[in-house]
Design the sequence.
């Protein structure tokens, strides 16, 4: 069992478990955490999962673990690992079943006190306009060819079909389109699941949230992002829905005998993987790109619905009620990137599972708007607690393959949460705090209670102090829609 | 009898039954309970499911994936199952009813630490689901 004394403390917020800890490890594990976060992380299997991830063939430098870490399946949530081209591996478990689960943030110039008289209208309007909940279908009914176009083109499809502006697309990671997506690499079941679900939120920990900018820490970055103190913002958290889940399921199953065929052993089956340049690896990269593009399009369509609701609800109350996109980023994804490793520039596949990209200023992949400040990093808190907006730092490239945390991270299991918290009471408690919640399921709401999550302030403090990403603004929730 | 076990972010169930067929039936019952599945009292349909896998773990995953697909895409649940398992081949005659409501969604069945094993007189498995 891994213990705190097995780690070397490299700095106040960085710990290393050396590869000598286990003979199967290819690289060390580096954990961004304060003392308390590390001690709590040792209470579940997340550190052992990080050790297991460090056993994958072709990894470079180190496996990184973010301070919102918790136990997953295979990789820990909050894990980052980079594998070298061409024969390093890609592991679907290192990306997750909800491929390109991610967050989109939009800002406005609507002062939050304009919301008070219409908060119920806004809540009901968003709940009606943005389908959420188990098994819900969307307003769009795609046919095969249209779905294929969504999977190939992502946000570009939404722009051509009137759901997005050019500015939206520019303010999306990779302009909302991963290259190399071939819908022929999707199974019939993946296509069937994807057809009715574009423009839907799903359930679980997915949400739409209206907030206001409570505090600004970095005026220059906030100005570039359009964040104004006291004004409303909107966050959307969801992913690739059933299509993405099916891609991962299909691939994990198909990869079960791949390690044996390529001559490597894995500590557990959830880490099933294939070399990046193998036919199996290429097929998964293509299918993953399809699912990622679907998710970018999904969040864009939901954003367009939300804009319609804002326009209707605030009509006659304020002239400027536009929602401007700040950024959209993925937190379950595999990205082909160039990174400096031991003085060489190396092409790698960066697995981010419950971790986001966090590139600093002047990175070539950032839009012109953010060249001077760096990439927005979005860290939603739990329901009822603050969310944060940060900006990526150049130092993140060496520290964490340009990656940051993605949320607060769970501390309580769903079983514990639903047995100790009643959804109906939680609703009332949040209402007393001025947060209007609309949820499709009370047990589901209880599982997502704030008490089930880490302290997001502490999590963000670690990435800020460690130099990965710098705080820009804190957002306070006002309306929460959950499936 | 199955029981839910602790997992920080997802659902995990420990299954135990006297035979493999019972284990597979129990796995569906566990998902029904976790998801809060309620069926319509309606006329039943029947379908036959045939699966073949390289090992029992993959067979169990594919079996559960069939059920999750049934819930999500076909809006159906399984009222009863008659299963035959021979090595790693499964044939099941399933009585289907329409889904009335469901409280939670399970995104996928994982292979995480999955082992279908015989312990003493019982077959056991622990399954982790992505939520």
Sequence:
């Amino acid at each position: 069992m891994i213990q705190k004394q097995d780690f070397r403390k490299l700095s106040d917020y960085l710990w290393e478990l050396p590869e000598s800890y286990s003979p199967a490890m290819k690289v060390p594990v580096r954990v961004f955490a304060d003392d308390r976060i590390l001690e709590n992380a040792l209470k579940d299997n997340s550190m052992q999962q990080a050790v297991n991830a460090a056993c994958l063939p072709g990894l470079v430098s180190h496996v990184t673990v973010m301070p919102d870490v918790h136990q997953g399946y295979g990789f820990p949530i909050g894990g980052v690992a980079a594998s070298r081209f061409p024969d390093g591996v890609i592991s679907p478990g290192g990306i997750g079943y909800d491929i390109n689960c991610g967050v989109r943030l939009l800002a406005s110039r609507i002062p939050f006190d304009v919301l008070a008289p219409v908060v119920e209208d806004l809540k009901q309007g968003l709940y009606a306009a943005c389908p959420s909940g188990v098994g819900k279908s969307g307003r769009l009914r795609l046919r095969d060819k249209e779905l294929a176009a969504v999977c190939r083109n992502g946000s570009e499809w939404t722009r051509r079909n009137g759901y997005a502006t050019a500015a939206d697309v520019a303010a999306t990671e990779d302009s909302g389109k991963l290259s190399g997506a071939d819908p022929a690499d999707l199974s019939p079941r993946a296509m069937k699941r994807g057809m009715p679900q574009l423009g839907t939120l799903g359930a679980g920990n997915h949400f739409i949230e209206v907030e206001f900018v409570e505090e600004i820490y970095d005026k220059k970055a906030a100005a570039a992002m359009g964040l104004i103190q006291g004004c409303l913002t909107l966050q959307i958290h969801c992913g690739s829905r059933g299509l993405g889940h099916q891609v991962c399921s299909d691939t994990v199953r198909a990869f079960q005998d791949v390690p044996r065929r390529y001559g490597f052993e894995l500590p557990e089956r959830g880490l099933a993987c294939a070399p990046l340049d193998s036919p199996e690896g290429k097929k998964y990269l293509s299918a993953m790109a399809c699912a990622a593009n679907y998710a970018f399009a999904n969040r864009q369509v939901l954003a367009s619905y939300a804009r319609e609701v804002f326009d209707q609800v605030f009509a006659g109350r304020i002239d400027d009620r536009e929602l401007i996109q700040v950024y959209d980023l993925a937190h379950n994804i595999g990205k082909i990137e160039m990174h400096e490793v031991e003085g060489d520039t190396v092409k790698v596949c960066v697995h981010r599972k419950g971790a986001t990209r966090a590139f600093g200023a002047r990175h070539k992949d950032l839009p012109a708007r953010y060249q001077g400040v760096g990439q927005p990093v979005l860290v939603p808190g739990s329901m009822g607690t603050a969310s944060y907006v940060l900006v990526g730092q150049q130092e993140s490239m060496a520290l964490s393959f340009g990656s940051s945390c993605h949320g607060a991270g769970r501390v309580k299991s769903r079983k514990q949460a639903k047995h100790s918290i009643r959804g109906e009471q939680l609703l009332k408690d949040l209402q007393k705090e001025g947060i209007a919640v609309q949820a499709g399921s009370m047990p589901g709401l209880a599982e997502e209670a704030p008490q089930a999550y880490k302290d997001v302030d502490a999590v963000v403090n670690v990435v800020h102090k460690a130099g990965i990403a710098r705080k820009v603004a804190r957002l306070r929730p006002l309306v929460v829609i959950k499936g | 009898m199955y029981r839910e076990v602790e997992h920080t972010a997802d659902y995990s169930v420990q299954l135990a039954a006297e035979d493999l067929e019972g284990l597979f039936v129990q796995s569906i019952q566990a998902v029904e309970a976790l998801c809060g599945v309620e069926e319509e009292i309606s006329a039943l349909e029947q379908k036959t499911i045939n699966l073949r896998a390289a090992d029992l773990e993959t067979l169990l995953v594919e079996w559960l994936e069939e059920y999750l697909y049934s819930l999500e895409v076909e809006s159906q649940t399984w009222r009863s199952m008659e299963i035959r398992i021979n090595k790693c081949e499964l044939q099941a005659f399933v009585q289907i009813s329409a889904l009335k409501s469901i409280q939670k969604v399970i995104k996928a069945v994982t292979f995480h630490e999955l082992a279908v094993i015989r312990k003493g007189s019982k077959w056991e498995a622990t399954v982790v689901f992505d939520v």
